[in-house]
Write a structure and sequence with these properties.
Shape: globular
Largest sheet: 9 strands, mixed
CATH superfamily of the largest domain: Glycosidases
Strand content: 25-35%
Helix content: 10-25%
Number of helices: 12
Length: 575
Amino acid sequence: MITRFPVVDIAPTIYFGGEFLPAKAIANESIPVSATIFREGHETFTAEVVLFNPKGQVESRSPMREIWEGTDRFEGIVRPTATGCWQFAIEVRDAKGINSSSEKFAIKVEGDRALVGSWYEFFPRSEGAIRRPDGTVQSGTFKSATASLARVAEMGFDVLYLPPIHPIGIDFRKGKNNSTSCEPGDPGVPWGIGGAAGGHDVVNPELGTLEDFTNFVAAAKKLKIDVALDLALQCSPNHPWVKEHEEWFTKRADGTIAYAENPPKKYQDIYPINFDNDYQGLLTEVLRIVRFWIATGVTIFRVDNPHTKPVHFWQDLIGTINDERPDVVFLAEAFTRPAMMHSLGKAGFQQSYTYFTWRTTKAELTSYGSEVAHETAAFFRPNFWVNTPDILPHHLQSGNPAVFALRALLAATMSPSWGMYAGYELYEHIPLKEGGEEYRDSEKYEIKVRDWDKAKKNGLTLAPYIASLNKIRRENVALQRLRNLHFHETDSDHLIAYSKREGDNLLLIIVNLDPTRAQESTVHWNLHSLGISSEVFDVEDLLSGEKYSWSTHTFVRLDPARPVGRVAHICKVKI
């Protein structure tokens, strides 16, 4: 109802599925609360946002200020200090003591990993793989992959994502480069789940045993790396479900089970799941599987193609798991339409893949960065991936080290979570075909034997630079936040400038988006966005260690032909 002082258009609020859902946050995150507030006549009033802790007690009262005079739009900041279900309300009072209060709205405060993480992806079968003298390849295992954890930790990654680790089907198994003809020795696609050894709750015997896997997870945790497991709800024709639960699949008119398709792609080795015939049975089974892997120490699940399953299924699944284990995180691999991606976030996914992979120009990056930081942050947490086994973006196909460096820097500094698939640091860049975005000799269909030591010895790796980026992320809390991203004007479309601030931690980032030549421009810093008043300020470049005295209008020149650090400045302001 309308109160004495109308308080309308309150944000952050999420109305979805016929109810208000909690906005997303992590502990100690600054959350802007805004509303349009007005009254009749000309008398003044004050407004504040009241924060209630999970016990329902008033935790804080923060003043709200009109954003622009005459707009009636007010904003204040709340900062929940612990995980749990918090609430906020807006209270308004005038000089006569007349006051009104809005209704309360919820904020779900989760652990840091729900928002913050540096992700790395590798295929366990390629880690420690050996090429025999006859040209055949011996698969890596979880035992050999354990040795690779040190390399991942050295680069500063704290989440390691594994493609499906389950038995791989034999029938219609794909061969090299997605060939429908499988040759002897072809290992198959890990997403073609299920075989004689079992299904989603079994480790592929070629990778080792369940004990090997749990030892691998434990070894990762000692290095402060969380293992993320793939949750792909699909089956090979050899999965036990195909015989035990025919009702879980879609059949053609001739009685055969329909394989998966994502035109123009065809997945003859995969059967998709049909949720219409036995919804409760499927939900119960998937809950069992997720709980099974949680018991091994896994607390992160990267969900394959969630947009091809009912949204309410994910709401039921994630809600049930998070009621039991609030620390478990689900990442949506959903490169699809915005409405579906946003709905999955509202339904419970803590994070999502994004369109960053294809945003390359200053205008595109500014628009998309502003969207995820300010328009959708209440329900959609982005994870910026520079590449995936499925996606070799066109801008990487030149193999130019500078473009690999600048794309990694953009991802690592614009978003609190970012990701990289193995081989990126080696500048792998050969496409399957001209105009396509798939890798030639894709690791999805074969085991890769990479010589990491040789690349390091010869200096043909981006790994030290990646390590520097992740170190800067760890040491600067501003880069671990989403809602604090602000863009600043530059006189060149080749240079993009943005800032991030959390408390006294203020970073200024300038990136040359042209990987082939030097670019120069004047950057016009918005002091209001920076939260400083001085027109001259001292900064230190965290990549090079150099110190500068910058001003409101700062001239910069960045040359990608120099060491890769020169594709950008990441400067910390001395406050």
